[in-house]
Structures are given as structure tokens and as C-alpha cells.
Amino acid sequence: MSLPSSDLLNSRKFEIATALSLLLFLFRIVFSTVNSPLLLILNELLVLSSLYFWILYITNFINEKEHTPISLVLNAGILNAILFFIIAITTVLFDKLPEDEISFGFFEALILLLLGFITLGIATYIISGFSELMKLKQKRNPAKYFNSMMLFFLFSAILFAYSQFDNSLKSVDNAVYVVAICLITFNALRVSWIAFLVKKQKLQLLIISIVLIILFGFNFSFTMESDFFNQAMINFSPGIYRSLNLIMLYGVIYFVIIFFTALFHLPTAEAFDKKSEEISSLFDLSKLLTSVFDFKDLAENITSITTKVYNSDSAWLLTREGDEYKLSSVSGIGYMQAEKITESVLEKYDYNLSEVLIIDKKKIKFRVRNDIVSFNFDSMAIAPLKVHNQIEGFLFVARKSDSRFESEDKKAIAAYADYAAIALENAKLIKESLEKERLEKEMEVAREIQYKLLPNKIPSFKDLEISAVFIPAFEVGGDYYDFFEVGEKNLAFVVADVSGKGISAAFIMAEIKGIFESLSKTISQPKVLLNYANDIINQSLEKKYFVTAIYGIIDMQNGKLTFGRAGHTPLHLFRDNSVKRLRPNGIGLGLDHGNKFASTLEEMEIQLNNNDILILYSDGITEAQNGINEEFGYDKLDTIVTENWRKNASEISNEIIKNVTTFSKDKAQHDDITLVVFKSNFNNKQIEVG
């Protein structure tokens, strides 16, 4: 069985690195002391070539393992402790003689060779670990910056080795050494992965970084002194000695930066942890998935949303149909490629995954029968879709970038897969148990009933034009508007939006109508009415629902408007060729069961003048999206009103709806649209009710 090209290449790196190390060992046995320029050149070529290929191999080895940042840091600390112990032992045992009396006999040569290879291995693993740490959580590939630093490491090592026989390039060596330090500092600043650690990990990192600063600092200081270890390293390889010196300096700078960065992020760690938990809940996402009943449309929504939510390049959905599994939807990948990869992966696990599996191209061989399937992704997550402990399908998410799925991604992907599984199961049940035509007829009846709950006639006044529009996103919706005559000379109005969509929201809307209609007959102050409405809603509404509303009263005798807002969209007032957005304080109805609702609710009063225009609406207008997910927003709404203020209320509302429809023509309507437009003809004089 042949190995995939990536495994074969990695095997070649190991073979070359091993061969070079054996050749170096034989070279050092034959030439126990290197005392000529030619031997020095051969020695450095072997040492630096071995170092290079070992770095390539170990970097790839580290990349294949599921190392956390903390584990990589701990590994660097352990190796530094070993190096510190070696330096301390050699200093105690061999640093008793003056420098000019140190000689390297056969025994010392063996010790030298052993120290050289141990130091070579430690330096290789530490620099490979730094390389992996620097790439973590980076939006752009930082390899070119790290490679530039390694190139100057090489220049510095070569120049230092050359200076052992000729000091003419000493100044150039010093200059390259300084540039290498500058590049070390630049690369050490790439520690964005710290922001993604939880608070406990950041506290651990603070303690570990202090220990590592001390260890790297001691080892760096030892490489600057003249003792047996340093003499041994220079005798083994001046290039390795200089590289080790730079690596220790890198460690000091890197962990000093890590310490202060972790300390800086510590105050926000709890907020980050909380935000992660909120995201993993996927509450809004679950509402969207459960609002679509058609199985095919739902499957397409799941894969398209998956690519956006998890910043992936491709996603596909496999669902059970009887005793077989079939691809239901793909996004960002062809059906043929998705089928081959799916077959290769799931056959290995016998279609029995109990939890989310995260893999990458270096951990799995994609072989289907006798064909090797090309794997163009760097990381993949596979989540089982479980309903009643039975696997009903699998969700695949894949990335082409260097950013792999981490172990902490499992919880969020598992939660999303659970919501998707429930939504798909619901769609199947609807498809199997209800005839589509019957369902559409029932929904049409519900829609007709809902429209009967809305005003069948818009009030007409001499000095106030009124226009109202309601467009549900689905057959039925949760938006509501109404008008009430309060006394003989006052007009009350309400615009409300029930959280959620569909039948449940429509039933709540009917209840809201009864509450406002009954309270408006006895209460003449908007603030008082909203307080009573909140008390009633808290007793009857489930906690998972709430209602935003804006309620106001217009005195038709003098044109005075008094209104309150319970978490609803702002009231837009056009006056003197500009639009103001009025936002008196207030939270949604049903959100608070104590005194917070009443204490935060504000009432606002304005005097309407001639040609004043009031715009009341639900967020289905401002949150309407186009094909590139851009929202319609407040500014476009204000611009339409400003450009059409000379028209009557009906014409203004038509312009708004036309513009929203045109703007979102490439995107399905996802929320109910309600719009109420008032245009004032008040001249602050006595008027008559028409």
C-alpha cells in the first residue's frame, strides 16, 4: 500500500535528517577536533543541514498532533529545564580549570559529542514549537516573517563560525546579530492566540511564563560566558552555539511579551468566556432552522449557514433515508468529491460516530476502493445528527486555510448539529404525516384570521393623513398595528412586534390586540397603559417570548403627541427637511417581572406641526438584507422620507415598501414588515375630526 504524498514527503525528511546526523557522528568520531578551515566548513555544513531537516520534520510532527498552546509552552519549558540541568552539571564537573588549560581528550570528545547532539535536538524542538505557536490564530500566514528570522539565524551562525579563524568580518557578524534580534522581537509579538484562552489558562500561562523567562534567561546568560559548556559547543559547532544563543534570547523576549499580553487580557477573560458560552447556545440560529418546513430548503439552509458560522470553505449534509445515507445538500464543494470523501471517512468508522470528530489531511488517508481521493482541506469536522439517540445523518464542515478546527470547537459544532437534527426531523415528520396542500390551506385560513385582527379601515381625519402596511414573512406573523379612538378628540395607535415567527407569534399577537384594545378604553396615558400591559403579559406569556411595542396618543384638537416605547424601533420624525429618531427609554414587554420595566419606561411629548411626518415600523424594514447580507438600515429609510416628504402618507409608505422590496430582491424575506405613516396638517389651531 503506497503512502499519500504528504506522508511520503515527511518520511523523506526523517530519512535525510537521520542520514545527516549519522554522517555527522562519523565525521566527529574521525575528526575529534576541528582545527582547520576546511574541516570547519564541512562540520558546519553537516550540523546546519541536520538542524534544517530536523526542524522540517519536527515542525510537521508537532503540526500533526493536537497540541494546545499551553502544552507547547510546557514542552519548551521542560526542554529548557533539561538544558539548564546539563549546563549546570558540566559547569560543576568540568569548569574547575582556567580557560587556557581546558583541553579535549578522548573522554572530553565523547562528552562533547553527546552534549552537541543533545543540544542540537533541544534547539530543534524549541524552535519548531515557537514556529507552531506563532501560527496559531493568525488571520494571515506568518511563515514569511518566521523564515526571514531563520535566514538571519543562519547568516549569524555562518559568520560566527567563520570568525573562529578570521576576525575580518566581526563587524558584519555583529550587524547581522542585531538584525536577528530585531526580527526575533518582531516575530515574538505574534501572540494573538492568547486572546482565545479561557481565564484559567491565562492564569496558568502567567505562572509558566515567569518560570520560562528565568530558565531562558539563565541559559542565555550561560551562552554568553566562557566555561566548559560553551567551549564544548564552539568545538562541536560554532553555528549551533550561536543558534542556541539566539534561541535562548528569543525565548526570553517571547515569554516576556506573553507575560504582559496575558496580564493585559486577564481583566477581559471572564467576558470572553461568557461570550463563548452565549455563542455556543446558538439560540438565534435554532429559531431560523426551525422556521423552515421544507426538507430540501432546510438542508440547503443548514449547509450555507454552516459555512458562514464556522468560517469554513465547504459544508455538506448526509441524511438517512431508510437503510441508506444520501447527500441532501452541499455548499462550496461538488457532489462527486463530497460523496467520495464521505465514503472514505465514514467507512473507516463504520458509520458510527457518537461525537464530533476533528481530523486533518495528515491524519487520514482518503482511499475509496482502489482510488486515492485528493483532499484539498487542511481541517475537517464531522458531527453526527442524533435524534432519540439514533444517528440520522452527518454534517461535514471543512476548511482549506491553515486555521484548523480546535478541540474547543467541538461543543459549538455539536450544539449546532443537535439543532439541525431536530429541525430536519421535524421537516421529515411534516413531509410524511401531512399533505402539503392541506397544510397550505390551513395556513391560509390562519393568515385570513390574522388579517381580520388588524384594522379593516384606516381612520380618516382632516388634519392627519394615515397609511398602514403589513407584510408577514410567512403565512402568519407576529407583527401588529392598530388604532383606537380615545374619548371624542384623541386618536391612540400601537405598533408591536412579537419575538419569533409563525403560528405561536400569531396567537400572541391576537392576545396583545385584546390587551391594548381593552386598556385604551380606560387609560389615557401611554406610560401607565404600557405598565399595565406589561403586568398582564407577564402573567400569560411564556418566558421565552417577549413583545416590543410603541404606543401613543394624538390630541386631535391641538396636535400634541404623547407616546412611550417598550424596546421597539425608534419613531422617526421628519421636520424642517431633516429626520430625528426618537428613542424614549423602555424595555420589551414580558422581559421583566419586577420593577425595572416601570422604572426605565419614559414618556415623550411633541407638538406636531404642518408637514411633520411620523414613521413607525417593525425591524423587518431596517433589517431587510440584500444578496451580500447588507441591511437596509435607518439611513436609507430617512433618505426616502426626506426625498418624498411632499407626497401624501400613502405615497410615502408605497415608496418605502417599493425601495425595501427592490433592495432585498435577491434575499428571501426573513421577518415580518409593518409600516405606519402619519403626515400632519396641523397648524396649531382648532381642528375638526373628519
Attribute tags:
Beta-Lactamase, five-stranded antiparallel sheet, elongated, alpha+beta, Phosphatase 2c, domain 1, 690 residues
What order do the helices and strands come in, and which of them pair?
Layout (H helix, E strand, L loop, with lengths): L4 H26 L6 H28 L4 H26 L11 H30 L7 H20 L7 H19 L10 H25 L4 H9 L1 H28 L3 H13 L1 H7 L5 H15 L4 E8 L2 E8 L3 H14 L8 E3 L7 E2 L2 E2 L6 E9 L2 E10 L9 H25 L2 H18 L10 E8 L7 E8 L3 E9 L3 H19 L5 H15 L6 E9 L4 E7 L4 E5 L2 E5 L13 H5 L2 E5 L5 E5 L1 H4 L10 H11 L5 H15 L9 E8 L10
Antiparallel strand pairs: 1-2, 1-7, 3-6, 4-5, 6-7, 8-17, 9-10, 10-11, 11-12, 12-15, 13-14, 13-16, 16-17
Helix pairs in contact: 1-2, 2-4, 2-5, 3-4, 3-7, 4-8, 4-9, 5-6, 5-9, 6-9, 7-9, 8-9, 12-14, 16-17
Give an overview in words.
Helix content is 54%, strand content 16%. The chain contains 21 helices and 17 strands. Helix 3 packs parallel to helix 7 and helix 5 packs antiparallel against helix 9. 36% of the residues are buried. The C terminus is likely disordered.
